[in-house]
Amino acid sequence: SKSLSIQRNKETTAAAQLIQLRVKATSKMSIAMSTCTKAAGALALLALLDPAEAFHGLSAARLAAPQARRGGLQHLRAAPVCAPPRRSPSLLTMMAFEDKTVLQRAGHSMASLAVFLSLVMPAYIAPARVAAQAPSAPASEKKLDGGAKVEKQPLGKRGIEKASLSTDESVKKIQEKAELFGEILADLQDLYVDPVDLDKLAETGFQAMLNSLDPYTEFENVEAAKVMRTQTIGNYGGVGLVISKNKDSKGADLPYITVVNAFEGYAFDAGMRVGDTLVAIDDKDVKDISTGDVSAMLKGEPGSKVQLNYKRPGLPDVQKAELTRKIVLLRDVPLGMTLGKDEDRVGYVKLQGFSTSAAAELAYVIGQLQAESPLKALVLDLRGNPGGLLSSAIKVSELFINEGEKIVTTRGRTISTGDPLNSGTATATAAPAQVVPSPKDKTSETKTAVAEGAAVMKRSTFETTYNSDPIAMRIPNGQQEVVFHPPLLKKDTKLVVLVNRGTASAAEIVSGAIQDHDRGIILGETTYGKGLVQQLQRLGQGGQQIKFTIGKYYTPSGRCIQSKAYTAKKGELGTDEVKVKDQDRKEFFTDSGRKVRDGGGIEPDIAKKDPQVGQLERELDRKDLFFEYANKYEAAHLVDGEVLAKQQALMATDEVYADFQQWVVKQTIDVESPFDKSLDIMKTALEETGYTAALGEVQTLKVKLQSLTQEEFKKDATSIKRRLDLALRSRFVPESIVTSVALYGDVQVDEAFQVATDPSKYVSILGANKAASKQQVAAIDPKNKMVDKAEGAWDVFGN
């Protein structure tokens, strides 16, 4: 045993030395290649994607829509990034798509295309040929938020620190713990009564260890790492289907996979629809095959073919479709449109994530909305946005924040041991931030000495401030290079940002920057409150990785909006959450002097809660009854369903709603009330204590409460009808149309429209600080302007 321990120590020391040499060499190569990667971003995009195909169907389209109840939403114009032109004559009568291609458009569309090409970086990357999956991540990656987002960063000081660790004492301690863990696994493998899965055991141990720190620090296996990289890069090779295994009435998985979304431009155009059941892929039966395995079968090299056999409600025979795999772009901006009348000039954009292309997509859509004339106001919808890359949050903020103004500051801890490679002033790549700061950004480092055993560690805290910087790009004519000075959206364009409890992380960075600089109004509910920064570190050569918290971020006013602290549970796995007390929250001030607070998310300037969903509606959704009834409806309306879905009228008519109620009752599925679980606990307690005489009263109360819940069919008819209408419509039309229709009856969107079209209310909420704003504009060096008279990025191209 002693000999084995000595041998392990020698092997560990040799491995550490080898890693250090490898990191040193990789660091120099990575830093040298980072500049080349940036310069080749736009060229890589053009070389990879045929422009005509890449922008197919992105021209603006007009969609007739119902009148809003309170007159706020009177006319809808469909998204510039909505569905490509359908080949069905009936759809063409409803949606008047423009004849000109995107690359032929002049004026503002040229500006938007330039922004798109300049901001997309590192460009869309095709999946690897062998793995037929999303591209593998680089040697050093980072991510921000709980939504699994990754970001490239050169290996610098941070990578060297991992190799050199900290002190001899800590190296020895780490080796002892690693050997102990290895011995435990070896003993379990050799001596446990039943055979064990070492991979599963080890992964369970890793997760238990990391989950004791905070919910965002975790181990990710190979499959989880692949999913994360796909989400971050924003593309993969596949057919554009979202699939799931539905459950039966008893909660068991159904044998076959169901389509829950078909992307327009991909599987939707090939004929696949929501509700289709996949039976076979390339003649291989997929019964009882997991969702992950089926997903892997659908993915592959772009250009390759895949044969799908599927069943559709209402059709007796198995249907067949041959799909061509493409580079599927996961759009962060699923919808852009105008609200109200044409003369209102109020734009609406939904931003649902922060992958590498988020800022480019948003800039492109804003440019398309302004193609005819500048917008008077813009509604930016960040509701339900879980966040993403810090670099994308900064680029998105630059569309709205004045040049030179602060966007966000990150602060964290680094540890060094006096290694010559780690000494000296911290550089941009050394700080564990999510992006490499520009020369105008500021990075500082504070060092303190901490004794640990016989050695002294140098602990450093880093602070990096990211400002709104100019964006250099070439006009599409290829001959004139210009610099767009933030913001790309004109300063006099009103801005209303919609947020809710699902708005988190990178989305809170954008919201906080807009609020602190009084650039726009935040409307909705208080956001989630995630102010932590995570780093992603690759482990070994197997594609596994670890995600751990390295710092916090602060809005321009200096507040950290993290709403919870985490402590390890005593004697249990996981962490306890401790919410920041209201009396402990500190006050900060926006540019115009408005009070804002830290420690609890971004509080809206105008509080507007979304109507609470009733218990019955939650139950219907939880048990997939909306989805199952849509199967029944689709089977009965295969001929006229598409026509009905394209009309303004509500598909969930009174007649359909009545049929839905009767169908739910016939399913013999008990609709739970909020008190059912408590009553079951009471019933068990009565049985155990012998008070069985009261069991009848408990059951009577349970039945009564369930009947009251079912009475919500009448009380919440408007909300349930709306939810049912979207479920029915999704069977026949693409997601962008369903998403746009969902805005009608949205009280928060309606309120945002009212604020955006009421100048006096808008100004009164933000407060006036015009003098300071004029001073900031005057401070800009005149020689840096694109055009002397231009006030916005789009003016250089005319109106």
Q: How much strand?
A: 15-25%
Overall mean pLDDT stands at: 74
Low-confidence residue ranges:
1-8, 18-165, 415-437, 448-456, 769-799
Computed CA radius of gyration, to the nearest angstrom:
28 Å
* Biggest sheet details: 8 strands, antiparallel
Shape category: globular
Distance between the termini: 80 Å
State the helix count. Answer: 25
Percentage of helical residues? 25-40%
Alpha-beta content class: alpha+beta
Q: How many strand units?
A: 28
Q: How is this structure best summarized?
A:
This protein has 799 residues and is an alpha+beta fold. Helix 15 (625-636) crosses helix 21.
Verbal overview:
It is a single chain. This protein is of the alpha+beta class. The chain is globular and about 65 Å long. Strands 1, 2, 3, 15, 16, 17, 22 and 23 form an 8-stranded antiparallel beta sheet that branches. Strands 5, 6, 7, 8, 9 and 10 form a 6-stranded antiparallel beta sheet that branches. 40% of the residues are buried. β7 and β8 form a beta hairpin. The model is unreliable at 1-8, 18-165, 415-437, 448-456 and 769-799 (pLDDT under 50). It starts with a helix and ends in a 21-residue tail after the last helix. It contains 25 helices and 28 strands.
